[in-house]
Amino acid sequence: MRRQTSSASATGGSITPTASGLSGFFDQPFPSPIGQRPPRSSVPLNSAPPPPAGAVAADPRNGAGNGHAEPGAAAAHHLQALTALLGPLAAQTEEIHRLRAEVELWRGEWQRCDRERRRLEAIVNAKSAEPVGVVLIDGDGLIFLDEHLRKGFAGGQQAARALVASLPKLAGGVFALTSSAPSPRTDSTDDAPTHELGAVVVNVFVNKSGLGHALLRSGSIPSWGVYDAFWQGFSAAHELFSVTDVGHGKEATDAKVREHLRLYVSNRQCGTVFLGASHDNSYTSVLQSLETTTPLLSKLVILKGYTDLAHGLKQYAERAVTVPDLFRSTRLAEKVVTSPTNGAPPLANSTAAAAEVEEEAPSQEDEEAQATASDNESDNEVQVIEWETPGNAPLTPLTPQTPYRTSRGSYSGPSGRGGGIRSASARVSSLLATPGETVRNLKPRPCHTFYLSPWGCKNGDGCEYAHHYKLNEEQTEELARLAKEIICPYVRTKRCHFSEDECVYGHRCPRGERCTFGETCRFKDLPNGHGEADAAAAAARS
């Protein structure tokens, strides 16, 4: 007998859900988390799909076989309901990914445009900023006039001011001539238009020692101290003026000028570049290259020194200008002066063939080496030298005011400071030496670097060793042999910049394996003092 149930239990009063109640539950629309408008379909977006055909709402109170739906059909119905719910969410997710990619694309474009904006602003600011004019001078060829050099520090400052004062009108004349509507060019700068330069940077690159010795030999400057003071005055004339000593080396000055020229021509803020190198054809190639890749012709002005423009630079002749009364118009010439004989007056200011200033200059270490070696020279280190005079006649004494020329073509005048030929009587006594007189009796002794090195003696008139002896070829070779018996002060520390053959002093014992001094030889402590390393290397090769 089946137990009869009631709608309310006797104890709890709970209500058992009916089939019609479940059907009403699934018919209720689920709330959408997206809040999107329902699709155009007539079926509500979140409504459950209709039950399968033939399906009857299940009643848990009824058992199987009473015409009610199976549990599998109910599960399928729920799955379809979930699919209908999640489908729009998946579509919205794809749309979000697409929009996010589009946002990243436009963000990248915005960043690129912002970078371009900043770049253009920098260009505008650079163009609107104060322009800069640059003067690059090859000091080995563009040489200041003697009247400035001889004034020392004051002459350097005067030369710097004269240079800067003349630049605006010189540049204005060049750019007016090369513009689309050129005006007639005149030699006078009084009527020339003025070109705005802004701040002016002046860089002079020079082989200071090489140029200084050439000026000393030509008689253009009285002493090395005056020459050095000139450059100090030029550099001190303004904070943007500088003098760079490039040292020895034929291309040292050219290389620095070329690289600075490339740098400034490519600089947008630099409006005018003055190139003081009208004497050298080596600048032609760099100018042609810059003319192709940069706005060179809108900036370039060439400063002339010598009257004749270098052949390779003649294509830029309309851009070449001359600063009045500032640079030499002729090349340096050696002053040839002979000592008087038989009462004849000395030949003063005779001009030899013009020579470029291209000799190599010594480094500071080399000069110190010469001074150290000369100071340490003893009577045992200097052997006898017999001085030869023409026709075995005694040397003719010179008066204190008489200039004379040495065997190296150097010009020597009255004695300067710091030793040297200290008085006329000392010079006369030394020049009266007989052919058989020895070196140790000559006071002062001959200067090694003056007679033997290609750059001469930097000390000039201030050197305490003699520059005035006239040596023939044999005597010069003998002096070189004696100097080789003095150890180079820098060979032990491997700081000598010259090879064994180039150095004035010795890097090894000149007697080599035939040295008879044994343990007392001054070259004994050197690693290869007697050629031991060379002998070992030769034995290994054999």
Automatic annotation (TrEMBL):
It holds the Pfam family DUF7923. One of its GO terms (molecular function) is zinc ion binding. Residues 1-21, 344-355, 405-414 have a biased composition (Low complexity). It comes from the Eukaryota. Keywords: Metal-binding, Zinc, Zinc-finger. Residues 356-369 have a biased composition (Acidic residues). A zinc finger (C3H1-type) spans 441-470. Residues 1-71, 336-422 are annotated as: Disordered. InterPro entries: DUF7923, Znf-CCCH_tandem, Znf_CCCH. Coiled coil: none annotated. This is C3H1-type domain-containing protein. The lineage of its organism: Eukaryota, Fungi, Dikarya, Basidiomycota, Agaricomycotina.
